[in-house]
Amino acid sequence: PIGRAADPGPEHDARFQAVRAAFGFVPAQLRWTPVGAARLRSLRAGELGVNESSSQYFEDLIRTLDADQLEGRHPLNKSLYLCSKTMLPNRILTTLGDRVEMAHSIEARLPFLDHKVVEFLRGIPPDLKVRVSLRGGTEKHLLKEAARGLVTETLYRRKKHPFTAPPTRSSRRDPMSELVSDILHGSDMRNLDLYDQKKVLTLHDRSKSDGGSMSNLFLHLATLAIMQRRFGLSLA
User: Fold this and answer.
1) Are 49 and 41 in contact (CB under 8 A)?
2) Which of 67, 114, 147, 164 has a CA that sits 20 to 30 A from residue 199's CA?
3) Domain boundaries, the chain
4) Cβ atoms within 10 A of the Cβ of 58, count?
5) Under 8 Å CB-to-CB from 4, ≥6 apart: which residues?
6) Is the backbone peptide bond immediately before 111 cis, with ω within 30 degrees of 0?
7) Is pLDDT above 60 for 1?
8) In the Cβ-directed half-sphere of 102, how many Cα atoms lie within 13 Å?
9) Where does residue 105 fall: left (phi above 0), alpha (psi -120 to 50 degrees), or beta otherwise?
10) Cα atoms found within 13 Å of the Cα of residue 66, Cβ hemisphere only
11) Is residue 216 helix, strand or coil?
12) What does the pLDDT look like over 112-168, one tens digit per residue?
């Protein structure tokens, strides 16, 4: 979704005013930020659930960016710059283990984090990064073409997809669903001061027929509950 402007809804949403002013469109990676944030806020305990301004969040975010890096750039490159300042350092390099690997001198992602590779890729045309066709977009187009003779045709044609944990499904036979449910119903969730366990369980019960569309939210909450027990997190 990087580089793709969101649908007409966010384009006219007042909360995205600062984003539209800076980018000229609403990057897809920001589209669901207000939705996800509002859903999590609704589960917070007590006064922690007081509504916060999504527009203020975006205004603060834009102030951290270098306006010169956005001026006159292709929408794809604008979105990649945004990713390099937000998702890449704050989420991707952490959740996929890169920081842990680097701390122990393990180059698991070699050579893709080499600064020479990054500098080269900054200069190539956008259509070599993402090839757009009537059938959709092909991300990492140049890399796919370079490696085509080294991988199977199935891998070459496969759509790019993230490394994520299995979704929690509604079936009681699903081990992941059972694990998350046990955590949310247990003392670990009850001891997590940030969220109200009753609110979490109410939403969890309602979601059992949604096919796992909120699985990431429940995995997030279960992870926080485990971290609370393991590391003694506190709001104090």
Assistant:
1) yes
2) 164
3) 1-73, 175-231
4) 22
5) 27, 28, 79, 137
6) yes
7) no
8) 11
9) left
10) 6
11) helix
12) 777 888 889 888 999 999 988 767 778 889 999 999 999 999 999 988 877 766 665
Q: What b/e string do you get for 111-147 counting C-beta neighbours within 10 Å, with b at 16 or more?
A: eeeeeeeeeeeeeeebeebbbeeeeebbbebbebeee
Q: What is the pTM of this model?
A: 0.74
- Measure the CA–CA gap between 180 and 167, rounded to whole angstroms: 10
Cα–Cα distances (Å) from 160 to 5, 142, 144, 215, 231, in that order, read 19, 13, 10, 20, 35
Displacement of CA 38 from its chain's centroid (Å): 16
Distance CA 40, CA 43 (A): 5
The rounded Cα 68 to chain-centroid distance in angstroms is 25
pLDDT, tens only, 179-193: 999 999 999 999 998
Q: How far apart are CA 106 and CA 98, in angstroms?
A: 9
Give the position of tokens 């609370």: 228
Measured CA to CA, the distance from residue 235 to residue 194 in angstroms comes to 7
Q: What is the DSSP letter of 5?
A: B
| 130 beta partners | 139
C-alpha 131, offset from chain centre: 22
CB 15 within 8 A of CB 55: yes
Rounded Cα distance between 88 and 170, Å, is 32
The residue type at 75: P
Residue of 58, 95, 60, 65 lying closest to 82 (CA atoms): 65
Is pLDDT of 110 > 80? Answer: no
